[in-house]
Amino acid sequence: MSDGALPSATRNPAVQGIALMVTAVLLFATMDMLVKLAADEGIPIGQILFARNFFAFIPVLWMVRRAGGFAAVRTRNYRGHLFRSLVGMGAMVCFFLSYRALPLGEAVALGSAGTIFMTALSVPLLGEKVGPRRWTAVFVGFTGVLVMTRPGMGVFDPGALYALGGATCYAIAMISIRHLSRTESSVAIVFHFTLILTVGGALSLPFAFKLPDVEELLLLVGIGLIGGTAQFAMTGAFRCAPIGLIAPFDYLALVFAMLFGYFIWGDVPDAFLIVGAAIVVASGLYILHREAALARARPIDPQPHP
Fold first, then answer.
1. Which of 71, 134, 138, 227 is 20 to 30 Å from the Cα of 121, by its Cα?
2. Distance (Å, rounded) from C-alpha 126 to C-alpha 103?
3. Which pTM was predicted?
4. Residues 159, 246: Cα–Cα separation, whole Å
5. Within the chain, how many helices (H) and strands (E) appear?
6. Rounded-to-integer distance, Cα 118 and Cα 170, Å
7. What is the pLDDT of residues 158-205, one digit of tens each?
8. How confident is residue 4, by pLDDT bands cut at 50, 70 and 90?
9. What are the b/e assignments for 112-142, b being 16+ CB within 10 Å?
């Protein structure tokens, strides 16, 4: 990873990288849980978006300071940052809407299809060559999505479209980060993303705003602080250890989300959700395995995580 992350472990960087990744995933899952609680309280999605990024500036600015100050976030590629941020905003809004419309575990499970969508979209958007093995994994992953959504069985929830829309925007955002990372540091990408989404969320406040009580205000502050801290932990994880080693731990978000859903809302995932999620995770892990194998075959620059 580039500037601004936690220092590498002195004894075993791989172990520290895994620990930081698991911590980041748990924090992001906790943030998602708080987002659903806030949405259930009737707080508008734009207001949640604003809080998520405004209060995240506290840990993000600490990251900037560790990277050497605002000189580390200077850029000439404003258009690239704007595009990445707008697509990322679309992903965040769609995911937040899916948390309000669906059980948390189901929303996160459908959103995990982002890795599969990213592989499919890398062909038309990046001109990358995807071999038959990865295409097979993509089609298997889409099968898992169909199992979870069960179209044609009379139980399709339109809220699933929010999660799938978020996964699509997430995939496009990750592809745009591949472009940005050629000239931009990870701390610059995170800083401009947080800044632009704070402004975007603020623009929505005159149209939809709920004056929060003390409990709701704590929810909003927690969403931002936890989300920003999770970003910091994930940035550190990708500096300490190779992507191929720690990226699979991202799927722990499914486990955490289902546990939160069960203990807070009493959600019990059905067989279709469990089987479909298992198919999506298996195909995603295989895609990550193939990406790691290709990376070993030809040296490439590491890509920062959003």
1. 227
2. 34
3. 0.88
4. 30
5. 13, 0
6. 8
7. 889 999 999 999 999 988 988 888 888 889 999 999 999 999 999 999
8. very low
9. bbbbbbbbbbbeeeeeeeeeeebeebbebbb
